[in-house]
């Protein structure tokens, strides 16, 4: 390899020799560095254990091993020995933070692997397995230990009051994780979120997120989802939250059918209220203040035991909760006789009949259109060329006329020897006796027949 490298390098022979020597030295250092075999990187979790493997690869040389040490270099701190093994003097654990948590897996100088129990987040860092050898000096290999921590995830809805300002309605937290988690919000409510990150003294990270919006009564009970993703989780963590928005009551009165006739015994009114929290009181009153004797109230229901003129009045229902009060009024009218319900036509049947009629009319129109179009296509112009026109009075015209004699119409007394014909078009023509004889002669000659 060195010879090939030198052959490709331009320059003087002396310079090439120096370059070959440098390559040999670097190669030798690489071979030496590989004498200590370790793992480059390991991941572990708090309270668990991790094995840091180390092995000296001799490669057939006569290197003498004197001692091996494990040196820990924290992420932010100074290097410090945590474990030492000497073939004569035995084991030593000089760092008190690891004293009862580190053990050698093999009592052999060539395989000084160690195990660290009850891991802490602060144990993250670089661990170097370093040999003291003769005659080459120290040999070492380094493993990076990455401490991971699963976050403690939690989420909750925040009870708020409906208003006009943006407030936090839900909170989500991924605490003491490493690496830092990512928090997302899934919702159709239309709010926004803010996130903060704080670092712990042991290297963990806490991520907090708030979901904010301008709360209204319609937002109460709607859902938002907190979603947490982090490297140590097999799948995203999710929590469904129902928003809690408090608001004063809104009131409606239901049940009145405009048919409170004298003597009726099943007349009922209902006071319906929407509120958060639930209403604390529901009160029925009339325009005069007190309720008639024929009226009974059960919570939100007002029942009339017997309708009379006393309930021909205006009823008021008032509802209260801790955020305020709301009321609704309804005026009832007492009639003498019961109104019989008028049967309303079945809307579905009417609509169906109309649609059916329209479909039938459309079908008839389509059929008529197709028939007329067919007739127009079949009654087109003649497909043969008509004969050319001829002059009147010629022999050809006489031959082309039909065999039946023309019809003569007598309009005025004719002179001796004159004949009158009614042509198919134009004005009547009078033919003289001389002209008639000339025409007959031409026809007889053409037909080669005897004329009389």
Describe this entry's structure for a reader.
The chain has helices spanning 2-8, 13-33, 347-378, 395-400, 433-447, and strands at residues 36-38, 41-44, 50-52, 54-56, 64-74, 80-86, 90-92, 102-104, 114-116, 125-134, 137-147, 152-157, 160-161, 167-177, 182-187, 192-199, 205-213, 223-229, 237-242, 245-254, 260-261, 267-276, 281-286, 295-298, 301-304, 314-321, 324-331, 334-335, 419-421, 429-431. It has 5 helices and 30 strands. Helix 1 packs antiparallel against helix 2. The strands form 9 sheets. The protein has a 6-stranded mixed β-sheet with strand order 2-11-10-5-6-7, with no helix packed on it. Strands 13-20-22-25-24 form a 5-stranded mixed β-sheet, with no helix packed on it. Helices cover 18% and strands 39% of the residues. By secondary structure, it is α+β, with helices and mostly antiparallel strands.
Q: Helix amount, in percent?
A: 10-25%
Tell me, rounded to a whole number, the average pLDDT.
Answer: 81
The Rg value, from CA coordinates, equals: 57 Å
The proportion of residues in beta strands is 35-45%
- Major sheet: size, sense and barrel closure? 6 strands, mixed
Assign an overall shape: elongated
Tally of helical segments: 5
Oligomeric assembly: single chain
Task: Give a short overview.
The protein is an alpha+beta fold and 452 residues long. Helix content is 18%, strand content 39%.
Search tags:
6-stranded mixed sheet; about 40% strand; disordered C terminus; about 20% helix; 5 helices; about 450 residues; single chain; 5-stranded mixed sheet; elongated; alpha+beta
């Amino acid at each position: 390899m060195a010879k090939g490298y030198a052959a490709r390098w331009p320059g003087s022979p002396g310079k090439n020799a120096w370059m070959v020597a440098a390559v040999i030295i670097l190669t030798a250092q690489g071979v030496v560095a590989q004498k200590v075999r370790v793992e480059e990187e390991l991941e572990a979790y708090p309270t668990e254990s991790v094995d840091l493997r180390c092995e000296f690869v001799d490669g057939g040389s006569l290197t003498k091993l004197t001692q091996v040490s494990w040196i820990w270099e924290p992420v932010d701190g100074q290097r410090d020995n945590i474990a030492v093994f000497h073939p004569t003097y035995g084991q030593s654990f000089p760092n008190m933070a690891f004293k009862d948590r580190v053990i050698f897996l093999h009592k052999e100088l060539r395989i000084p692997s160690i195990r660290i129990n009850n891991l802490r987040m602060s144990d993250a860092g670089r661990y170097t397995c370093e040999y003291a050898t003769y005659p080459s000096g120290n040999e070492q290999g380094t493993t990076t230990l990455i401490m991971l921590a699963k976050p403690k995830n939690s989420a909750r809805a925040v009870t708020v009051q409906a208003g006009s300002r943006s407030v936090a309605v839900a909170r989500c937290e991924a605490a003491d994780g490493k690496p830092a988690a990512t928090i997302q919000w899934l919702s159709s409510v239309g709010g926004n979120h803010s996130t903060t990150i704080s670092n712990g003294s042991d290297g963990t990270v806490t991520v907090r997120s708030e979901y904010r919006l301008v709360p209204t009564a319609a937002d109460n009970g709607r859902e938002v989802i907190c979603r947490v993703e982090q490297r140590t989780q097999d799948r995203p963590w999710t929590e469904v939250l129902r928003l809690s928005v408090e608001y004063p009551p809104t009131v409606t009165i239901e049940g009145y059918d405009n048919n409170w006739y004298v003597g009726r015994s099943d007349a009922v009114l209902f006071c319906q209220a929407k509120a958060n929290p639930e209403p604390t009181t529901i009160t029925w009153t009339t325009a005069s203040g007190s309720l008639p004797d024929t009226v009974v109230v059960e919570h939100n229901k007002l029942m009339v035991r017997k309708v009379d003129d006393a309930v021909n009045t205006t009823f008021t229902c008032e509802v209260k909760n801790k955020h305020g009060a709301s009321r609704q009024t309804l005026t009832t009218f007492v009639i003498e006789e019961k109104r019989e319900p008028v049967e309303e036509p079945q809307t579905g049947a009417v609509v169906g009949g109309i649609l059916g009629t329209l479909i039938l009319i459309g079908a008839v129109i389509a059929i008529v259109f197709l028939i007329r179009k067919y007739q127009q296509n079949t009654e087109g112009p003649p497909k043969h060329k008509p004969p050319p026109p001829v002059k009147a009075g010629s022999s050809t015209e006489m031959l082309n006329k039909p065999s039946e004699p023309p019809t003569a119409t007598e309009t005025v007394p004719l002179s001796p020897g004159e004949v009158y014909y009614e042509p198919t078009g134009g004005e009547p023509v009078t033919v003289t006796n001389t002209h008639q004889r000339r025409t007959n002669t031409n026809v007889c000659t053409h037909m080669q027949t005897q004329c009389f």
